[in-house]
Amino acid sequence: MTLTVLVVDDDPVMRTILRAMLTASGHAVEVAADGAEGLARLVHETTGAALPDVVIVDSRMPGIDGLEVVRRLRAHPGTRDLALVVMSAADTDADVAVGLEAGADRFLFKPVTPGRLVTVVQEAWAARTAGG
């Protein structure tokens, strides 16, 4: 199954890596360079264009961080049902809990392997489309 994934990360190298991994797995990938751009694209897209199936956000970005992006997407009527994945280099239980409490469906640790990335994206999408 081909999914459309929006990657929101301030690191251009990470955006390139994630795009390559997801594209190699047959998914369509769009990117945003920070939280503000990601939110603008998603809120704008709710006015007519198709939303992505899954959004991956880096938890730590300057300006609007990934956790705030997730909170705002969950609060917006047009995006509250999106499958959301928070990604972070932090790998403590507390970091995972904060991401999930913000509204993420899944949490992804860096460094990311292609297999784990694809699995988490598919799990987040499946959980959201199955109603939880």
Q: What this model shows, in words?
A:
With 132 residues, this protein is α/β, with parallel strands linked by helices. It has one domain (4-129): 3-Layer(aba) Sandwich (Rossmann fold), CATH 3.40.50.2300. The longest helix is centred in the last third of the chain and has 16 residues, at 114-129. It is 45% helix and 19% strand. The radius of gyration is 13 Å and the shape is globular. The protein has helices spanning 12-24, 35-45, 66-75, 93-102, 114-129, and strands at residues 4-8, 28-32, 54-58, 83-88, 106-109. A 5-stranded parallel beta sheet has the order 2-1-3-4-5, with helices on both faces. Strand 3, helix 3 (66-75) and strand 4 (83-88) form a beta-alpha-beta unit.
Distance between the termini: 19 Å
> How does CATH name the architecture?
3-Layer(aba) Sandwich
**Portion in helices:** 40-55%
The description of the largest β-sheet is: 5 strands, parallel
List the defining traits of the structure above:
single chain; 132 residues; Rossmann fold; five-stranded parallel sheet
Helix and strand arrangement:
Elements: E1 4-8, H1 12-24, E2 28-32, H2 35-45, E3 54-58, H3 66-75, E4 83-88, H4 93-102, E5 106-109, H5 114-129
Parallel strand pairs: 1-2, 1-3, 3-4, 4-5
